[in-house]
Amino acid sequence: MARSTRILFVAGEVAPFTEITEISGLTRSLPEALQEVGDYDARLMMPRYGTISERKHNLHEVIRLSGTPVPMGDEEDEVTVKVASIPDTRVQVYFMDHEEYFGRDAVYRDEDGDAFDDNPRRAAFFNRAVIETVCKLRWGPEVIHAFGWISGLVPLLLATEFADQELLENTKVVFTPDELDEQATVTDDVADALGLDVDNLPASLTDLATRFADIVINPPSMGAVEGASVFTETDEDRGQQLADLYTQMLSEVPA
Fold first, then answer.
1. How far apart are CA 204 and CA 178, in angstroms?
2. What does the alpha-carbon distance between residue 175 and residue 199 come to, in Å, rounded to a whole number?
3. What is the pLDDT of residue 253?
4. Which of these, 187, 153, 170, 175, lies nearest to 71 by C-alpha position?
């Protein structure tokens, strides 16, 4: 019996846990929309910001996944993984938790409205933690769909340092940008410090995601541009739209 098609959504925000842009609504509704049109096992991963109440949302730690080492250039950190379900659904959300990177009482900006200086480092930790957690789960997704700038290193990491990971060797990557400008730019110095294997810098995380993703699909507010399609306006149609997109990607014969 064939197993369900595995889809992993990676995002900086998922309603109702964190709601900043329209991305939170997309990531909230898409897993259910997909499951209504086909046999999909859809899961989400996002940061566990200090703004998220663990008691209110019933988060609990997944002991067997916590403590996974996450390489950060010449250093190494560990991720704590927590899980909850989107209310009124069976869709699981895994939260990548780290006090230094995400424990602050803000998401992307400080109290003066300035983007955090370490946003590129926070993104690198989050994206590596996601991939390391997937590997520890032994849950190989057919498609990883990354949303927003903070997920922008996923396509690059899969194409470089995780390229030889057997569990992910056939995984396709979709990227959906957001409209945030969080000064998340990767320079040569940042790439060296974080151990990122990439040329043609400086580049924003969004630019890197667009460069390395297999397909780019924009949120409705951004509209269609050259090289990227756009989500339909209604939730009812998006499940079939994504199902068709994923099916097309997975059926393509490698060159």
1. 12
2. 20
3. 62
4. 153
